[in-house]
Amino acid sequence: MATYSTASAGKTPAVVSATRATRPTRRRGSGHRTSRVAGYGFIGPAAILFIGLVLIPIGYSVYLSTRALRVSGGGRKIGGAAQVRRSEVSVGLGNYRDAFHDSELVHSLLRMLLIGLIIVPIMLALATLFALLLDAPRTRFANFSRLAIFLPYAVPGVIASLLWGFMYLPSMSPFRYAAGSVGLPKPNFFGPTAIWGSVANIAVWGGVGFNMVVLYTSLRAIPNELFDAARIDGCNEFQVARRVKLPLMRPALVMTTVFSVIATLQIFNEPFTLRPLTNVLPTTWMPLMSIYTTAFVKNDIYAAAATSVVLAAGTLLVSLIALRLVQSRALGDS
Amino acid sequence: MHLDRRTAWRPLAAATMVGMLMLVGCSSKKKASDAPVATSSSTSVSASTSAAASSSAATSESASASSDSSPASAAAPTEKVSLTFWSWVPKIDEIVKVWNSKNPDIQVKVDTTAQGDALVTKLLTADRAGKGPDMFQAEYQALPALVSADVAGDITKEAASVKDSFPEGAWNAVSFNGATYAVPQDIGPMAFFYREDLFKSMGLNVPTTWDEYATLAAEVRKKDPKKYLGSFSSTDPGWFAGLSQQNAASWWAADGDAWQVSVNDEASKKVASYWGDLVKKGDILGQPFFTPEFNKALNDGTLLSWPVAVWGSQVIGGNAPDTKGKWRMAPMPDWTAGAKSAGYWGGSATAVSAKSKNKEAATKFANWLNSDPEGIGALIKLGGLYPAATSGQSSPEFAKAPEFFPNQPDFYTLASDISKTAKGFTFGPNVNVTYNSYRDAFGKAIKNKSDFAAALDEMNKATIADLKKTGFTVKE
Q1: SS3 at position A67
Q2: How distant is the Cα of B121 from the closest Cα of chain A, in angstroms?
Q3: How much is the ipTM here?
Q4: Which of B19, B258, B296 is opposite residue A9, by nearest beta carbon?
């Protein structure tokens, strides 16, 4: 599952935006027809992969979401209740009706909103801060720091959650030990409220590095003359950062925000891995946990497919609206 | 600069779309193999079958058994059959090797990729694709769901010959309305495991009733505030089901072609309220089992006892290595003094797929594995299981104490006595829904310090709602 570190989709635009300005425009070949064939040839593999790995699974999910295992009337009176058989039948929009009437799903969506409000601002603020610090002219050990901050991103989400989970467990936590030995009250990382911070911490820890690199790359792509000019005009480094760098980082900030929001919609690894360690995380804590439980614990892939389709459609809608708003405000002026 | 920003925009939008499509793709393409195995209440929990695991010892027994299997293979058609077997018994591949060397015509291939609930999911999925195995391991509570999904096949005729090898309770767990769907493999009668050394040094008496247990729990807290007598786990529904069975609870009953559900019956509510009081008073912990935290508590003496199935001896041995020879098994505390009762936690059977083309050969293997002295011997020695077959419980393997319990030479004699007092209840076709509801309802009850009995109401409601939704007739 994707986490805050869904990089594959994220890396390309930063690189593209950095290099596009300098790329020479290629002349079109003389033979129109051959270039058209070549074009299809180039697009072919991607199209096949897109159809095979994206469109068909989505289509199949939509199909499954209209089905269900139900007791069929015919097989009833073979040998009492224990022998009653279930078989797959069409239930139309029944699964969707159930999904919309499921108060747990609504609650999990609200919880997702809340954890997103915790994670996204903290993660982006830290990533921006680190990027600006690394870009400051007098920063020492910049390369080492960049790597150190980026490194948690290379740790798989499940491993990171296990690692932090061990450090949260009351009798094993080094933080509790440290707090106890200097006479401070021992924190309870699995408290009903504290769990929000505990989960958010893992996500932020794993995600800051990636976002920092994206922001830092965008900073490096800005011509140095702009900063020199600002300095000559009397700006100190803080003012350069605030008045020149931050506004110019805006496209990258918008992009990292959008990706972080999408990652929040997919939050799963962290709470799912922590769940067996504590009483405070129900199996329906986040929407994806709810879908997982329905599909693989309750063994109802049909209802899970319906909820997935609803969640995906919601994600698409929210993203499109967000992009449209951002486009008109930040990028599309005139 | 301005132009640059605009052009940067397009790849961004494209990448966002791809990102969103990935979300959709992920949620629909997830396979059963992603399912974690850690949470299932399976009997296989890190079984470390010690040094006794030499296959030569297993084959030495085979001399007596070979006479049983050779006429059987002679009767089979000369054509070779190859069977697949999904199981999570420790060292099952070595156990199957014993069979394969004796039965060249019925070769069994083992797949150990999933266990417990994850295996059920895998089975349901594979069965739909027509790629299910010939035989598979299933926990007793999962069997009704597999029967109603037509995954486990009717083997009444093929398994009839081994019926007498098993106690009635175990056979009832694999039979529904007179039809048999699996051969019982291992059982998990529950017992009371306690730290003998700490009980002695703290001057504690082994509780024989739950009243005594409650008093003792408070006494432990007074004597040493760092220690607890026990813990209530919100993540192990099978454990609570076993505790309820001990109090003669009955969660499901088949009445004609209707199901009767009573997860919140008086017997279960009494058990729930009892533990709820202990947790609320702080006399015992409210922590899940099978966590690193729990293992540490077992190992460092924070936890003085654990009511668990007999396979718990392997869990303690594997996770609390420093406490070798310090634990002892006793019968469960009773609800009424002298009642001598226990429930079951876990245990599994070998079922044959309804779609298997070699039902007869498959059942022959299942019979051998679970009722032939050779098969049982291998299950005990290599797999570390506590077998369901009555003959297995008096197997020579059981004459000596388990390696981790050198202080209790009569360990298996006692286990056998306990297993005779254990009683189960009928499982319904949606135990997975009930058990999942347990995790959420009791997790919430511990978190909010709310009524434990109300959690059972919640489980009951979820179970009935699911049965009705699926179209089962539910009698209320």
Answers
A1: strand
A2: 6
A3: 0.82
A4: B19
